[in-house]
Design goal:
The complex is a heterodimer of chains A (282) and B (181). Chain A is an alpha+beta fold. Chain A contains 11 helices and 8 strands. With 181 residues, chain B is α/β, with parallel strands linked by helices. Chain B has one domain: Rossmann fold (3-Layer(aba) Sandwich). Chain B is 34% helix and 25% strand. The two termini of chain B are 30 Å apart. Classes of the chains: A alpha+beta (282), B alpha/beta (181). Chains A and B meet through strand 1, helix 1 and helix 11 of A and strand 4, helix 3, helix 4 and helix 5 of B. Magnesium ion binds next to helix 1 of chain B.
């Protein structure tokens, strides 16, 4: 069952969020407005990315990031024809000519750079293939998607989208019940931490903004990226009336246990059981 | 004579009429009209006011299934329909991601009318492009206590299962409240 659709309807952030939360393995093929790309994932982590016009060989990537000179690249290619990226890297690392850390760092930067470009695609199509992982012989680097989503959202200057996703600032926030990554493993900016410290069912988003001297755009951006990264959730109406004043920060992460806010309809239990019996017989 | 009501809601063309049709003992009293507006012409008929199906339980008890109209300009009907409902079902066309955001909006709106139990039916699971229910749960940000059940509205057995899941959810809420008393 391939997931497919249009990026207009279902954006990159939402896709990455889904892949992250569902811990998916497979490849996301994207047709953007001008280019195509594909992103590979293993158990919810981004591990590789390829874009139409971008260099895909390991030596070229390391040249771009200044690790190798053009001459060195020519030498390597002449000496190791037909070898995969992985094999070349292995030879260079074991012979002491290249540090493993540098490889990881350069590959990670390369992958992230492509992914952040993809974030700006707001039209095109996508298709997720769970069975495909075209990374044989490639150097993959597992990258947690929470940070990618946070950073991608930061770069996304789409005020309209923000308005749309977060129309109401008079709702409150709470910590996600099933956060995928502990807070301490996520890179948050100072501003984001300030917002986090005010998260409490009794503080509306508007009140948090006022207390931190943030304008609507700032608070929307921050809350939106926290929502997309699955760190916080909006408390759905009907919500308790916000208490006058603001409740001071609580210890981050202390999510209150919550149960369904559903109430029973005004009927007797026996009647519901009658309905069940009848429907079973239909 | 007591009448009970379950509301079937969801975006345009998600399969509400089809679901009611599959289990109703009367021909669905549907107010479907031919579609004239281009934007909404992905099928030939749409429900303009509401659908209406019936299941007789016994001499004293009748269950009505009400389907909400899919088109946005009939939103004003929703609140009227939701009055006194036992619970509601949010139908989602699992093959059309462009409608997921709308489904979430409808879900929130109905919840704000009445805090009765509800479930999400991931409809059209017989089609190849259907997103699986677990993915819909994430995408629609459905709370863990709320069921997201696979559904094929054209299949009576599947529809029965969806209705039963809602009724089980109602019983669970009743049990929880009794424990607290
Ligand atoms: N394959 C398949 N088709 C379905 C299913 N459920 C509904 N359909 C089809 O999807 C289309 C829309 O179904 P309807 O029942 O009219 O949808 P609706 O929600 O009542 O639509 P509106 O009243 O216009 O909002 C129809 O062509 C149905 O036959 C399903 O489970 N599987
Ligand atoms: Mg209909």
């Amino acid at each position: 069952m391939a997931l497919k659709g249009r990026l207009e309807d279902f954006g990159i952030t939402q896709l990455l969020n889904l892949i992250n939360l569902a811990r998916k393995t497979g490849t996301l093929y994207l047709q953007g407005p001008e280019k195509n790309a594909y992103l590979c994932f293993h158990e919810g982590k981004l591990i590789y990315a390829v874009m139409d016009d971008a260099e895909d060989s390991f030596t070229a990537i390391l040249q771009q990031s200044g690790v190798f000179t053009a001459d060195q690249v020519r030498m390597i290619e002449a000496n190791m024809p037909g070898k995969t990226d992985r094999e070349i890297a292995q030879v260079l690392i074991t012979s002491g000519r290249l540090q493993q850390q540098k490889v990881v760092k350069s590959m990670k930067e390369h992958i992230l750079n492509l992914v952040y470009q993809v974030f700006s695609w707001n039209s095109g199509t996508f298709r997720f293939e769970p069975s495909k992982l075209p990374v044989q012989g490639k150097i993959t680097v597992p990258i947690a998607l929470e940070n990618v989503i946070m950073e991608g959202s930061r770069r996304l200057k789409e005020w309209e989208r923000l308005q749309d996703e977060l129309p109401d600032l008079d709702v409150s926030l709470k910590f996600a019940e099933r956060p995928t990554t502990p807070l301490r493993d996520i890179n948050l900016s100072v501003e984001e931490w300030r917002v986090i410290s005010f998260i409490n069912p009794r503080n509306t988003i508007r009140q948090i903004a006022q207390n931190n001297n943030m304008d609507e755009l700032q608070i929307r951006k921050i809350v939106y990226s926290l929502l997309q990264a699955g760190i916080v959730e909006i408390i759905k109406p009907p919500r308790p009336k916000a208490a006058p004043g603001v409740t001071r920060p609580t210890r981050a992460g202390a999510a209150a246990a919550k149960r369904a806010e559903m109430r029973r309809p005004a009927v007797k239990r026996g009647i519901v059981q009658k309905l069940i019996h009848r429907i079973r017989e239909l | 004579m007591q009448t009970l009501k379950i509301v079937i809601t969801g975006p345009f063309s998600s399969g509400k009429t089809e679901l009611i049709q599959s289990v109703s003992e009367i021909d669905v009293v549907s107010t479907d009209r031919k579609i004239t507006r281009d934007a909404e012409r992905i099928k030939s008929q749409t429900t303009v006011a509401m659908d209406f199906g019936r299941i007789t339980i016994d001499e004293e008890l009748i269950l009505y299934l009400f389907g909400t109209p899919g088109q946005k300009r009939f939103d004003f009907m929703w609140e009227i329909l939701s009055e006194g409902m036992l619970g509601f079902i949010v139908m989602v066309d699992s093959t059309r991601p462009e409608t997921f955001r709308e489904a979430r909006r409808i879900l929130d709106t109905f919840r704000s009318y009445s805090p009765v139990p509800y479930i999400v039916a991931a409809n059209k699971q017989d089609l190849e492009d259907a997103w699986p229910p677990e993915d819909l749960r994430i995408v629609l940000r459905v709370e863990p206590e709320v069921k997201v059940v696979p559904c094929v509205a054209t299949d009576k057995e599947s529809v029965k299962q969806v209705l039963l899941e809602l009724l089980y959810s109602i019983l669970e809420v009743m049990d929880q409240e009794e424990e607290e008393e």
